[in-house]
Amino acid sequence: TSPHDTLGVSSDGAARSSSNTDAPKTVSGQRTEVAALLGGVQTLQEATELQKRIVSCNAIFESFGNAATRRNHNSSRIGRLTLLHFDGGGLLRGGSLRTYLLEASRITAHKRGDRNFHVFYQLLRGTADDLRRSMRLSNDEEAYRILRPVETHNFLQKLFSKEQHAARRSEVDAVESNVQVPPDVDQENFELMMKGFELAEFSAGEITELLHLLAGLLHLSNVSFMKDEDDILQLEDTASHEALNNASLLLGLQDEKLKVLLQCRCMHLKGDALFTHRNEQQSACARSSLIKFIYSRLFDHIVNRLNDSVAQHLANPEPQEGGSIPASKTIGILDIYGFESFGLENGLEQLCINYANEKQQQLFVQQVIEEEVALYTREGVTSPAVAARNKASHQRSNAEQETEQHLTSEKAKPPGSFKADLELSLLSSLPDTSALLRD
């Protein structure tokens, strides 16, 4: 699916929407530069410093929220809204950041041809040798489970003939083979991220803790368990013992407590704690859930700290003549999730992302383009015909999306074979499979 680039302007501000991750960085830089010039010499230095902070936020966001996919080496895997705040005189006074739905599943599982979030590779390739050794890391990304691709199960393969499946598999493989991010790019972006942390006034201790948490997640991903003769989970091998020790050290946890957390499930009944042993699959699921939870909380913490950094100039605006406070204006720059078309392996999560992006595009067409054309018509001005892109397929997918969401919610409630039951229900409830098989 091709990304949509849109531009909307209102009386109170402007909004820039794009799925190209470089666009928000460029637009925010241009806006803050103009604001600095309009502010005169006395505010130029202040606005330039604020501009640096806002642009540096983009480098940090790209590291933690973007990833390489088969079709885009820098795909946004989170929605982000950057707001630039101006006073009544047009001077830039601050900014704020809002994020939407980090793609947490990518943290522990990505498809062949994709990568995990950039920051993990930047950590391995950008840190100095002594720092990397202190975190007990190697520079080999294949040494860590969450940086290795996983084979995904796709029930849509059942809709293809063997010939169709082979042809599409060949197309996907051709794209996958070309996805490479040079090490020097990761090294350069790691330096930009570190510079961004400094501009945002992260202390040296905070930065070290952030790096330790990331390294701890890499080690934690290598912890595996297997059942012994007594049908009790034990660490699988020496490598898992070492990974557990390293993860505990870097995450600031006790070895034994982390081990028990992955081995057992704790339930509280009438105030008493009851522990039940997990099996191998449940332990792996608990490990993945813990990794995703820690990374997501770390990301939220970084966003809050960045907001503190760029919002400090909003306080105590200078009053105008007569003592009134000038009204503020805002420019919004929206970086939406990256569109993707993965051929055989478009997952449910990416389907929801594409669907949400299409809904946003439809809203823009309706409220900006169609209303503008209607205004031309009322005033007797000839306007070019504007075709509504993807309207038919969007109307069809509305009903399909509601069906998919309902079935997913219903099948997730009872225990049992969730995947198998969901597949059968989806295939039987969506009879028009031609839409699923379109090129």
UniProtKB/TrEMBL annotation:
The keyword Nucleotide-binding applies. PROSITE patterns: MYOSIN_MOTOR. One of its GO terms (cellular component) is myosin complex. Residues 1-28, 386-418 are annotated as: Disordered. Residues 1-439 form the Myosin motor domain. Residues 16-28 have a biased composition (Polar residues). SMART domains: MYSc (SM00242). GO terms for molecular function: actin binding; ATP binding; cytoskeletal motor activity. Belongs to the TRAFAC class myosin-kinesin ATPase superfamily. Myosin family. This is Myosin motor domain-containing protein. It comes from Eimeria maxima.
